[in-house]
Amino acid sequence: MKIYNNLQDFKSEKNSILTLGTFDGVHLGHKVILGKLVKQANERNLESLVLTFFPHPRMVLQKDNDIKLLNTIPEKSELLNKIGIQNLIIHPFDNEFSRLTAEDFVKNILVDKLHIKKIIIGYDHRFGRNRTATIDDLIDFGKVYNFEVEQISAEELNEVTISSTKIRNALDNGAIELANQYLGYNYFLSGKVVGGKKIGRTIGFPTANIEIPEDYKLIPKNGVYIVSSIYKGQKIYGMMNIGYNPTFPDKNYSLEVNFLDFDQDLYNQTLTISFIKHIREELKFDSVEELKKQIKLDKDFSLAYLKLINE
Predict the structure, then answer these.
(1) What's the Cα-to-Cα distance from 295 to each of 148, 190, 192, 262, 289, rounded to whole Å?
(2) pLDDT above 90 as % of the chain
(3) With the CA atoms of 27, 243, 308 and 188 taken in that order, what torsion angle do they form, in degrees rounded to the nearest 10?
(4) 159 vs 37, 89, 180, 184, 235, CA distance in Å?
(5) Average pLDDT, stretch 43-61?
(6) How do residues 153-209 score in pLDDT, each as one tens digit?
(7) Is the peptide bond before 55 cis (omega within 30 degrees of 0)?
(8) What value does the mean pLDDT of the chain take?
(9) Which of 250, 245, 249, 254 is nearest to 283 (CA)?
(10) Which end of the chain is more exposed for a tag (fewer CB within 10 A), N or C?
């Protein structure tokens, strides 16, 4: 897949079939549209093209800096590549871009720059300055500028009844399995293993502290989770604690993974952590011994659960 960081960089001699949107999560609902895009591009010898934007429009237009996203740009790119998208344009979204009229956007960008012959879009898509243009306006533009419009109906999208907002809410509530069901894959995050206070090692459960560079990445609710990762081609499982570890009052917010039956130095390694199941809330224990007993129970539960799902 070719990735372009703005519209100006895109160059192709072929006509394209396009869809556009934020596609946060690249979830099962998105895949209804993306699957059609790839299939028709292959059938009609067109370039499949996804146009997305960063920052998220809400961050710019509503100054909603608190919105957390399901995917970082590298994660989204990886997911789209797996689907078979040929071209991804991640165009910077700013106030100037938001003021483009619907017709300027269609003629100057979609037609003149991207050479679209067809666009596949959800029935409720709105675009142009103040998002005033509708799917009906797009169909009218298609007649003028000679491109087709295929709208994904409410019925077709409602069959999966999935939205990025629903997934964010599930993750905020610790409902990992529901989020994974909506996504069609296990929710994941990527970060570098950094040094910590090594408290886990002193109580017999050494942890890898994960640092996430993107502050807009959504971290699931505080608590303990069963997780997995791939290290040197091997799938390894672990328990991740998200939060402040309140048994030790001077601890800062952290994401720590205790890998099960695995003991290698992971410092400075970049790991992708996939979430499998929420085990329990983060708890404060009266003593380190009580904490150790609970972690042992968590480990026994995790091993039994993993054995069950891997049989």
Answers:
(1) 58, 24, 24, 16, 10
(2) 68
(3) 30
(4) 19, 28, 17, 14, 33
(5) 90
(6) 766 766 666 889 999 999 999 999 999 999 999 999 999 999 776 666 666 678 899
(7) yes
(8) 90
(9) 245
(10) C
